[in-house]
Amino acid sequence: MVMLPRLTTISMLAYGFCAAVGAVGLILLLALLGWWIYIHISPFHVTVGRIPGPRFYLPLLGNILEVAGGLDHILRIFQETWTKKYGEIYRIFLGSHCYVAISSPELLETILSSQKVIDKGVSYDMLLPWLGAGLLISSGELWRSRRKLLTPAFHYTILKSYFEVFNEQSRILSGIFEGLCRSFPGGKGEIDVYPYITRCSLDIICEASMGTRIEAQTQDSDYVRAVYRIGQLILEKMLRPWLEHPWVFSKSALGREHDQLLGTLHAFTDGVVRERRKALCEEENNVPEERETGFRNKLPLLDLLLKASDDGKVLSDQDIRNEIDTFMFEGHDTTTSLMAWFLYCMAVNPKCQEQAFVELDNVFGNSERDCTQDDIPNLKYLECCIKETLRLYPSVPAFERNVIEDIEIGGFTIPAGCTLGCLTVATHRNPKVFPDPLAYKPERFLPDVAVGRHPYAYIPFSAGPRNCIGQRFAMLEGKVVLSTLLRRFKFEVCTAKPPIPSTQLIFKSLNGINLVVSLR
Q: What structural domains does the chain harbor?
């Protein structure tokens, strides 16, 4: 009889390892098979599978590996690559979540005009710790009641009172640019205009929303640093999916910094709310009837909220803080994007810059006077330039809506549980609507040229019931600040540092907006 050799310890371990690997492989194979069967028979996946889009081979990941890359890559693949390949409606899976991307004016009208599809998408949840259930993120009856409450704060009779703030901060910004220009050899040099415009916008929105001066352009402060940093940090978190779980994020260095920033931001706003409430109580019986309560004869948003609070029965202090923080975020980042990209467009298109300057010279001459409410209707070409800038570089490159019940769009059923992605950049660069879409042509927005254009073909401030409540404020701020800068400075392209467009919550450049600036 032949004796089999006794298995050694090593061979036994090897055998066990192979068996374990085989078992794990079998489990994975069965899991993949189950997932493959599931996506081919589940009503949800069968329904969304009828919508064109890239294949999703991997469970739990979907198309996320195709999206992985820099923020400039994310912008291109969503707004250009997939739109060209799959059309004006396509679906993708990011992880297990289905997104349906839309870039057709006709299809966008179905979404944006709806009174039902008004809940913001899941990506907005990352802003909840800072902004809470403010106007940007809230939904349903809460959103409707807040929208109704806040609308009077943006009436034109209130907005026109902010011209003093617009002009004062524009003068400060001009003084900073002038000082930089005079420090350059020959009075001309390179400036990254983005951080300077950011601080100008912060000064404007802080005084407009809270009636408080933070002097961001001339002084440093923890609050200004926190506002600037929190947006960057949220973006960094987005790029680290392993930090998605709240507990993991809270234990990370980024999470600890996030908590410190929130403490600074919320403490500042809470302090302003307390001081302003106290001041209003003291002023209640002393302010003449012809004066609006508030700083400099205007009604800051904070005063409106405090008057509506009714000792916390309508709005709690946290509700008020949520709304103020929301307007601080939306009111500085979006207008900064608009104004910085405008100056870039002027630098790239010197003929347009010269035409805008000629219009300003006709209105203001050689004077150094402020821009007034009466000047605004005469700045027609400047307005066209601003609108064309927002077409090419919309401050919000995309926005989302949650689908809470099945809807029909473009001949497809979009089941509940999907998120609709409204692609502003792709919509604005649709060659069917805007021929030669990458060219900068302000005349597109002359009244006779724009006649007949689909109302949802141009949506820099969204559209429908959830359009941007502050769009008139933003346009007025832009006209005053930009007219002030163009009257005093010439902007030229910095060929060594062209901007890198990217999606960063807001449409920004990865390397700033570097321009060669000189005094006129």
A: 47-125+139-216+331-519 (1.10.630.10)
